[in-house]
Write a structure and sequence with these properties.
The strands form two sheets. Strands 9-8-10-11-7-12-13-14-15-16 form a ten-stranded mixed β-sheet, with helices on both faces. It has a six-stranded antiparallel β-sheet with strand order 3-2-1-6-5-4. It has three domains: 96 residues, no CATH class; 106 residues, Beta-Lactamase (2-Layer Sandwich); 269 residues, Rossmann fold. Strand 12 and strand 13 form a beta hairpin. The two termini are 45 Å apart. It contains 14 helices and 16 strands. By secondary structure, the chain is α/β, with parallel strands linked by helices. Belongs to the GSP E family.
């Protein structure tokens, strides 16, 4: 009954495209929930810390009994391998207390994104590549019920009046060090989604991504990592730019490791994705308007609201997960009034585009402010712009630039490191990382802060007798 050509990683989802097995799942599901001894109230009454594991055990006992009952009936009996039997029981459990067909994809460590385009079409990103998976929901109503279950677990609400939700979900898991799987969920239903409900899930790494792992993955070089460590230690303000899924948040998380544990960090996000390792961290998250209120935007708390409030919380560092709108003005004001060491991300295709987008956001928040003054504020606020990109199946830092000031009404930027693609070998992008050739001006900040070259040799030495400036020699090319 099982399609042997399927990738081994997806043996658990084969039940969702085998009609005979799927019919069996639906039959056992109905028998289980209709069993006179089965109690949804019992499941709802379980303590939160044990709810997932205990509810799955509870449902499994009933599902196994129903499988045995069917096996005794010659008219209902379906020939099952042991693997089929386990897959059917697991699918029943997922339907009752899980997220249905999504569960095996959420459990698959190779999957980073799950994209559901109505009930018939499900795609995943695995190892940097998008591919369809052989599962589907019964119909759009089935998908909608799963979406509602997910949204309820995020303490949000979705219906035809409020047909969009963007939220985070923390799930219990045995694989993560802290026992939590973190995902971001975006759902859109009718009437906005014309063909039926759609769902986008981004899974975040269950292990903290370090700079060393990013080096091993080819995202950056040892010298680049050493410089970025110095940037964090010297409390320079950093803007990380890139497209969707380019690794901006991952890099921000990795850089945050080098913030002193003695500093008070405030993080501000629309949907909480950052997971800093320090203890002295206050995490703030926006709140959408009350969907039941007739008053526009009642109850809404924006990133701008949180940023203004954070300035009264005695922060040493402010980290804005992603700057998107009016909060850009308050962020610049904070950076220009002594709040150094701030980090944030922005959607843009180049370092220059990132500053232009930032200027536009500030202009929209302060219509009477001149473009020259805004650019001057940006040039004084940010010291470093890092550009991320997805190249083939990999994510790379394709540029680290220093903001060096203003020339007339143009913000000056200097390349510190760049990545140049030279070709493609199968799915692997080939290229070279090279320094820009000129040492950055912020080296003076390193020296003023007492940062020694030895402090920056965490990822490989730059050589005996070398100085800061040797790291930026244009001949130090790294081929990947």
């Amino acid at each position: 009954m099982r399609d042997e050509s399927l990738d081994d990683n997806y043996h658990r989802v084969s039940v969702y495209h085998d009609k005979e097995l799927l019919d069996l799942v639906n039959n056992i599901h109905t028998m289980t929930v209709n069993n006179e001894f089965f109690s949804h109230e019992y499941i709802r009454g379980l303590k939160e810390e044990k709810k997932i594991t205990e509810s799955r055990k509870y449902v499994k006992n009933f599902a196994e009994l129903q499988v045995e009952e069917i096996a005794k009936d010659p008219e209902k009996r379906v020939p099952l391998t042991q693997e089929d039997r386990e897959s059917v029981i697991e699918a029943v459990i997922n339907e009752i207390v899980g997220y249905g067909p999504l569960e095996p994809l959420l459990e698959d460590e190779t999957v980073t994104d799950i994209l559901v385009n109505t009930y018939k079409h499900v795609y995943v990103e695995r190892r940097g590549k998008l591919e369809p998976v052989p599962i589907q929901f019964k119909d759009n109503e089935h998908l909608l019920n799963i979406i509602r279950r997910i949204v309820e677990d995020t303490y949000r609400h979705i219906d035809r009046v409020s047909p969009m939700v963007d939220a985070r979900l923390d799930r219990e898991t045995d694989r993560a060090a802290d026992g939590v799987q973190r995902v971001r969920v975006n759902a859109i239903i009718e009437p906005l989604a014309i063909d039926g409900p759609t769902l986008s899930i981004r899974k975040f790494p269950e292990e903290h991504m370090t700079l060393q792992r990013l080096i091993d993955n080819g995202t950056l070089t040892e010298d680049m990592a050493n410089v970025l460590v110095g940037v964090c230690q010297a409390k320079l303000n950093v803007l990380i730019s890139g497209g969707t899924g380019s690794g901006k948040t991952t890099l921000l998380n990795a850089l945050s490791e080098y913030i002193s544990p003695r500093e008070r960090i405030i993080t501000i996000e629309d949907t909480a994705e950052l997971h800093l390792l320090q203890e002295h961290v206050v995490r703030l998250e926006t709140r959408p308007p009350d969907p039941n209120s007739q008053e526009a935007n009642k109850g809404e708390i924006t990133q701008r609201d949180l940023l203004k409030n954070s300035l009264r919380m005695r922060p040493d560092r402010i980290i804005v997960g992603e700057v998107r709108g009016n909060e850009a003005l308050d962020m610049l004001q904070a950076m220009n009034t002594g709040h150094d060491g701030s980090l944030t991300t922005i959607h843009a295709n180049s370092g220059r585009d990132a500053l232009i987008r930032l200027e536009t956001m500030v202009a929209m928040a302060s219509a009477n402010t001149s473009s020259y003054f805004i650019r001057q504020s940006i040039s004084r606020a940010f010291h470093v712009v890092i550009q991320m990109a997805r190249l083939g199946d990999a994510r790379k830092i394709i540029g680290i630039q220093e903001v060096t000031g203003m020339n007339d009404d143009v913000i000056n930027m200097q390349d510190i490191f760049i990545f140049r693609q030279t070709g493609v070998d199968g799915d692997k992008v080939r290229g070279e990382f090279r320094p820009g050739g000129m040492p950055p001006k912020f080296i003076e900040r390193f020296e003023a802060k007492g940062i020694q070259l030895s402090d920056m040799e965490r990822f490989g030495s730059v050589g005996v007798g070398a100085s800061f400036y040797d790291m930026f020699d244009s001949n130090n090319i790294v081929h990947v």
